[in-house]
């Protein structure tokens, strides 16, 4: 599934291992999410930082596919050292 196909309420796992719940249905390079890490915070996350999503049966994590634009932005961000 592409990151643009993920819907509001979908539980996802970020590249850093933290979990989040998507709060919008938007497409593009950023998504609004409630992130459960050291603290629980709501804010924007890069779409290329979404690594997996929880299947609707709640039993298995599946990988996501990124769009070419999201992969391009990932390379640009990594080149900056982030």
Account of the 3D structure:
The protein is of the alpha+beta class. Helix content is 15%, strand content 37%. The chain has one helix and six strands; from the N terminus they run ββββββα. The chain has a six-stranded antiparallel β-sheet with strand order 4-3-2-1-5-6, with no helix packed on it. β2 (19-22) and β3 form a beta hairpin. The protein starts with 10 loop residues before the first strand and ends with a helix. The model has no long low-confidence stretch (mean pLDDT 95).
Architecture blueprint of SSEs:
Elements lengths: L10 E4 L4 E4 L7 E7 L3 E7 L3 E5 L6 E3 L4 H12 L3
Antiparallel strand pairs: 1-2, 1-5, 2-3, 3-4, 5-6
What's this entry about, in short?
The protein is 15% helix and 37% strand.
Taking the sheet with the most strands, its summary is: 6 strands, antiparallel
Please trace the helix and strand order, writing H or E for each element. Answer: EEEEEEH
Structural class, by secondary structure, is alpha+beta
Task: Characterize the overall form.
Answer: globular
- Side by side, the strands of the main sheet go 4-3-2-1-5-6
Mean pLDDT: 95
Distance between the termini: 26 Å
Which structural traits does this protein have?
single chain; 82 residues; alpha+beta; 6-stranded antiparallel β-sheet; 1 helix; 6 strands; 37% strand; globular
């Amino acid at each position: 599934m592409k990151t643009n196909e993920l819907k509001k309420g979908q539980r996802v796992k970020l590249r850093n291992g933290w979990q989040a719940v998507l709060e919008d249905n938007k497409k593009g390079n950023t998504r609004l999410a409630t992130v459960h890490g050291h603290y629980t915070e709501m804010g924007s996350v890069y779409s290329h930082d979404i690594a997996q999503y929880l299947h609707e049966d709640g039993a298995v994590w599946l990988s996501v596919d990124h769009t070419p634009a999201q992969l391009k932005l990932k390379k640009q961000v990594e080149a900056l050292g982030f």
